[in-house]
Amino acid sequence: MDITATQLETGSAGTCAQDRMDRVDRVDPLDRLIVALDFPSAEPALELADRLQGVCRWFKVGMELYCAAGNSVVARLRERGFEVFLDLKLHDIPNTVAGAVRSVTGVGASLLTIHACGGERMMRAAVEAASAPGAPRLLAVTVLTSMDAAELRAVGVGDAAGARGLVEAQVLRMARLAVAAGIDGLVCSAEEAPAVREAAGPAALLVVPGIRPTGVEAGDQRRVATPAGAIARGASMLVVGRPITRATDPADAAAAILAEITSAD
Ligand code: C5P
Description:
This protein has helices at residues 15-23, 42-51, 63-79, 94-104, 120-129, 149-154, 163-181, 193-200, 227-232, 242-245, 250-264, and strands at 33-36, 58-62, 83-90, 111-115, 137-141, 185-187, 205-208, 237-240. By secondary structure, the chain is of the alpha/beta class.
């Protein structure tokens, strides 16, 4: 599936991605793969990023690495020419989330996550804060890909619906709220991607984690798909962590995933 220019219209840090979108009809596969740098400190994260130079362009800094290394690891990734997705999954009162968005503005990240379940007012406050120059584009996390229907019920979501229906209904509810709040894109699993695409429209950036190439164990993830399966279901970008970071040869693993993305597109 093609991604429109607006889908990767990122903040100042993402100007290169925007330029690439303007130049090509089909999206460069390098702009469809985000490697999750889930490491406890900057050194192993940067070492892996360096090993993936030329194979990967986007890296995700999540809460483990950000709590340990903060803005400096984002800056060091940017110095190396990489695009950064800051996956902080912000979830707090509107004033605090807006403040956090302002605090990371200008740091160099192109994308930033907030939790849709923080509600529409929280998301609107974040959107307003992200309208400043240098702010990252916002993605709303719908339902974590590690959660299944039983876990959703345990936190008070849903009741009698079938397992699949329950998760999809909640994902859609969150997606619609996020769209109404003016969020740029959504994070969901490949399972709900077609329904989310229908609800959010062709311009929404759909970022899909829970990616497991055939034969790779799911670990704590519950709603998983292969790279080709996720692209076929309408994902704009895939987030891949352990299948690359824990592979014997991470560059080989990333190249195989890129090949799968290309062939499924
Ligand atoms: O190692 P793995 O491929 O499972 O990593 C997936 C990454 O995507 C993790 O960094 C996780 O925090 C993130 N993520 C997710 N599910 C979401 C949102 C983000 O797994 N709904």
